[in-house]
Amino acid sequence: MEPFFNYISTLAIQYPFIKTILYTLLMVIFFGVLKKILNTSINKKKISKPEKLILKKKATRYLIYGLFTCSFLLWFAQLQVFFVSLIAVAAAIVIALKELIMCLTGGILINISNIFKSGQRIEIDEYRGFVIEKNLLTTKILEIGPEKNSQQTTGDVISLPNSLMLSQGLKNESYFKGYSIKSFNFKIKDVDKLEDFEKRLLTLASDYCSGYLDDAKKNISKFCEKEGVIVPSLDPRTKLLVEDGEEFSVLLKLPVQNSDIPNIEQKLNRFYLDWRIQQQKKHGQFSEY
Question: What is the pLDDT of residues 124-149, one digit of tens each?
């Protein structure tokens, strides 16, 4: 064994990076064992399964950060000269190709994080629509609008630079595998009519989603369990909103099929219009309900 260790020592002196490689391998093994110990410790805790999942994800994330930091510090001395040259070249490239690099970085972020897929509804900055194509530089969407609360497509195709993903928050409205939880707001000025309108609206919403409610609950529950979050209430429900102490609104929340969102919006709007016409006929004049 002694000749073997002498041979390894000689190699380490002649080629310093070999020692660094060995240290790196030992460090990876150490972090792997540490992860297993932490997961075992978390499994023994008397907490819910979603909380255990969240703790395991956090522990894994911090261990990966620690492994990368230690590896960088370990290899920095070996690659110091290379890094100095690389930084000078990189600075020149960044200045010359700043926008292109930001778009490319955004495209890489989209593909690595898998934050949305083709066919899903997304909203970023002031743009909303269905994703019809994504690549490393741009994302094409079929626009939804033009009003903020509209659920209809305009027919326009918008190409978004992926650099937006680095500076703007992105909302994915199709994250629940074919279903979404949507909100619809209806203004009512006559307080006496609130209870009647709210009751009829809730009955109508329950009828709309009765055919797919169980399937929506199943899919959304699977997603919530996977991500370690609390399953939201999925039954249609209403909420009373007061604006400036004078105006009242009824907010309706219900699960909808992504393919049926425009139809649901139109049905609810037509119900709201018919209800107002009925109230107008009852009172013999037009008033704001």
Answer: 888 888 899 888 899 999 988 777 66
pTM above 0.85, yes or no: no
The answer to whether the bond into 262 is cis (omega within 30° of 0) is no
Is residue 271 a part of any domain in this protein?
A: yes
Query: Tens digit of pLDDT for each residue in 147-174?
Result: 766 777 888 899 999 988 888 888 887 7
Render the chain in DSSP notation, one character per residue. Answer: -HHHHHHHHHHHHH-HHHHHHHHHHHHHHHHHHHHHHHHHHHHHSSS-HHHHHHHHHHHHHHHHHHHHHHHHHHHHTTTHHHHHHHHHHHHHHHHHTHHHHHHHHHHHHHHHHT---TT-EEEETTEEEEEEEE-SSEEEEEEE-SSTT--SEEEEEEEEETTHHHHS-EEETTTTSSEEEEEEEEEE--GGGHHHHHHHHHHHHHHHHTTTHHHHHHHHHHHHHHHT-PPPP-S-EEEEEEETTTEEEEEEEEEEEGGGHHHHHHHHHHHHHHHHHHHHHHHTS----
**Number of domains observed in the structure of the chain:** 3
From residue 271, give the alpha-carbon distance in Å to each of 59, 185, 202, 260, 275. Answer: 51, 13, 12, 17, 6
Position 289 in a domain: no
First and final C-alpha spacing in the chain: 92
Task: Give per-residue pLDDT as tens, 57-90.
Answer: 888 888 888 888 888 887 776 667 667 777 888 8
| Domain end (from 46, 67, 85) | 85
Residues 204 and 263 in one domain: yes
